[in-house]
Amino acid sequence: MSAAEFLELTDPATFVRHDPRDYWDRIRPAHPIHWHDSPGDLPGFWVVTGFADVQAAYGNAKQLSSARGTVLDVLLHGNDSASGKMLAVTDRPRHQKLRTLMLRAFSPRVLGPVVERVQEQAATLVAGVVELGSFDFATEVAEHIPMTTICDLLSIPDGDRADLLAWNKLALSADSEEADELDSLIARNDIVAYFMDLAKYRRDNPGDDVITMIATAEIDGVPLTDEEIALNCYSLILGGDESSRMSAIGAVKALSENPAQWAALRSGEVSLDSAVEEVLRWVTPAMHFARTALVDLEIAGQQVRAGDIVTLWNTSANDDPAVFDDPRRFDLSRDHNKHLTFGHGPHFCVGAFLGRAELRALLAALVTSVREIELDGVPPRIYSNFLFGYSSLPTVFR
Ligand code: HEM
């Protein structure tokens, strides 16, 4: 295959202009790994496409580091500024200790009430839009669930939530083609500063909440700094907001396009749990994650050198026919469905239970309140080489 047949993966526009799934189906068989040059002076990187190789790379945290960054765009332009402080961009042994601490935020005692609220909220939101006629599912329903869930998880005071939501929207505007990067950067700083203040407050006024838990915990006898606490609180928004939103939007889109699958879900022929897994595989909101090789190693039979950037394409791995039977079929009853949507290994998504619970609550609410799902226009794709999904979804529920 000539270089011209490879797509330019550094350019977000590529993922709007092309169907990434068609592309990976074309590339994967002959190219389980290939080198991708970058434009200008930016470094090139490896592209890993097959399920087994992507999974193995996620599991190989000893040789493949997350500390410089885990998203292609960040790695191409330097190091992640949260390196060594934020869970996702920290390597062992500190990663393991920080993760143990963060996992307290996801204990059944903390999550129980949060999941109950998610179920109530999803039911109320969906019941509210039925019979509205045409509405935007992205803004009317999908946008509200993840951020409320994360705010509940962190016990953000009600009076502060509007500010946090507004900053988060500005911070995310970088996903649009007309992004104002400065506004987005200022909003990110506002969020970190907000969490630093809240961490200080909760340390002096401890409560029974996740931020107090993180703010008063220690690693090797040393408390986390305010910046570390703030970055790790923010990381729950970074990890949990857009990806959950994209799965909800992708779920409704896929159900509208596959009426027989929707009928099977409504009739109870397929379980909600099985449907959740197929939606997660089908949508794969985080298209890739990336690592930096710490040593020379072999991936998919290819020599990779220390210092090289290695990108792992979940979106390709989740369609690998070596693992998934007829992967381009949306099949809610799929029984072998161990997808890589939440990654694998030491950095496996800490919010996976919550992400699944949000999606399950949405599907349950749809089954209860909706008979027919239709799209009312062509939804616009997100402008990103990291996140897959749609920024709006004109929908009709009956
Ligand atoms: C890690 C995807 C929901 C917080 C990850 C990773 C993936 C992922 C693929 C692994 C990254 C890597 O290996 O470098 C998703 C998807 C979600 C979702 C598709 C929704 C459908 C959430 C939620 C939260 C969250 C709801 C928090 C409330 C995190 C954090 C990490 C992570 C903090 C870093 C874990 C570590 O490095 O040890 N996520 N996630 N995610 N996710 Fe999620």
TrEMBL record:
The keyword Cell cycle does not apply. GO terms for molecular function: cholest-4-en-3-one 26-monooxygenase activity; heme binding; iron ion binding; steroid hydroxylase activity. Pfam families: p450. Transmembrane segments: none annotated. CDD domains: CYP142-like. The keyword Metal-binding applies. SUPFAM superfamilies: Cytochrome P450. Keywords: Heme, Iron, Metal-binding, Monooxygenase, Oxidoreductase. It comes from the Bacteria. One of its GO terms (biological process) is cholesterol catabolic process. InterPro entries: Cyt_P450 (IPR001128), Cyt_P450_B (IPR002397), Cyt_P450_CS (IPR017972), Cyt_P450_sf (IPR036396). Belongs to the cytochrome P450 family. This is Cytochrome P450. It comes from Kribbella sandramycini. The lineage of its organism: Bacteria, Bacillati, Actinomycetota, Actinomycetes, Propionibacteriales.
